[in-house]
Amino acid sequence: MWTARTAFVLCVAIFPYLYQQKNPPPPLQVYVFINGLPDEKPWPELKLPELLGSGTVKALHAAIESEWDSLRRSACQMAAGRALWKHVIHDEVAELLAGETYLKNIYEKIKNDRLNNAKEIHGVILAVRTLWFDSKLEAALSSFDGGGAQVVLLGAGMDARSYRLNCLKESNIFEVDFPEVLNAKTTILEEAVNSRGLVTPKSLSRVAADLTEDDWLEKLQTSGFEPMKNTVWILEGLLYYLSHTHAMKLLRTIAEKCNITHTVLLADFMNKQATTLSSSTYHFYCDWPDELLPSLGFSDVKLSQIGDPDARFGLLQDPLNLFDKLRNLPRSIQIHPDDGTPCCRLYLLQACGLPSS
User: Fold this and answer.
1) Which range is the signal sequence, renumbered to this chain (predicted)?
2) Which of 130-144, 169-183, 311-325 is predicted with the least confidence, judged by mean pLDDT?
3) Interatomic CA distance for residues 321 and 118, integer angstroms
């Protein structure tokens, strides 16, 4: 039986973490799609790039599958989701970052969903979430008065926004993650540069750090991060993997920057019911993040859910889709009245901070 819970599992399973095109579509573009494709055209066929079979990349992905834990491997799963939704995300190197195994696994799930006329196609949450972060990032950078800004991606994983988004061309970009994740990512992208002519970003620093340790901010500053400079912090698919203590400490550290410079926070939160999907994987939750963030010092907090006007991008056309059903229920309701399943919600949050005059 297809329920709100199973839909959330299928779409969220590829949570936490791009070849620069000459004329990429603007991130704010709204696409008119039915179940993910215009006019029910066939899903793009899975064609593995030749580079995935090359010695270096192939060996690296074999090591990832055998040596990394589930948290680190989730970065490749995320990349696979972006690769298979590239007709809306336009991520040209996601396939290389994902690897053959995850591409084939997720492609089969998408194919089965379409054969079964599912109301939500596997990975649609990832697609909507990616586009939401893209659009809010572009808007945030436009809001700064003159000059470039800093963009910090915490738990960056295999994200390659710095290669595909034009709005980042004047920004100083910092990617923070486990050293083995960043090393693998760097090696794969270097192969793409050599074989595809991938254009490298103007200013990109990769910072090897464990966000549960106390020294990540120090390592970030050693890599060139300037606390007094306007900054956008991106926490995509990150917080719920942390313990409550570590997640709150991370948010407080960022909130402290609101007192000294123009700061924008973009983050997603799970509610308590969503973390029950895998209690061994998901830990931190917040049922009311739009109340939590102001209490930490953020202002102008805006909350969206999948299916809201700024978080659908033409990808949720079925009038009976489960995300619209969820967002039409009061957020205080924890059990869906129609089928008795938990109301698993993903909240998309935008907040900012300005130093007091």
Assistant:
1) 1-20
2) 311-325
3) 9
* Structural element, H or E, at residue 207: strand 204-208
Task: State how far the Cα of 104 lies from the Cα of 109, in Å rounded to an integer.
Answer: 9
* Best CA proximity match to 258, nearest among 221, 224, 301: 301
Contacts of 81 (CB under 8 A, 6+ apart): 14, 106, 123, 126, 127
Rg (Cα) of the chain, in Å, rounded? Answer: 19
Q: What CA–CA distance (Å, rounded) separates 173 from 357?
A: 28
Alpha helices per DSSP H over the chain: 4-12, 55-67, 70-84, 86-89, 94-98, 100-115, 124-143, 161-164, 179-196, 216-222, 244-256, 272-275, 289-296, 322-327
Q: Is 0.90 topped by the overall pTM?
A: no
Q: How do beta strands 172-177 and 204-208 pair?
A: parallel
Cβ neighbours of residue 214 closer than 8 Å, sequence gap 6 or more: none
Q: How many whole angstroms separate alpha carbon 79 and alpha carbon 97?
A: 6
Q: Are strands 150-154 and 231-235 parallel, antiparallel or unpaired?
A: parallel
User: Chain centroid to CA 235: how far?
Assistant: 8
Q: Are 84 and 123 spatial neighbours (Cβ–Cβ below 8 Å)?
A: yes
For the chain, domains (ranges, CATH) are 1-357 (3.40.50.150)
Amino acid letter, 1:
M
161 CA to centre of own chain: 10
Taking residue 333's Cβ as centre, other Cβ atoms within 10 Å add up to 11
Residue entry with tokens 């963009």: 151
First to last CA, the chain: 56
Per-residue pLDDT reduced to its tens digit, 130-152: 999 999 999 999 988 766 799 99
d(CA 182, CA 157): 7
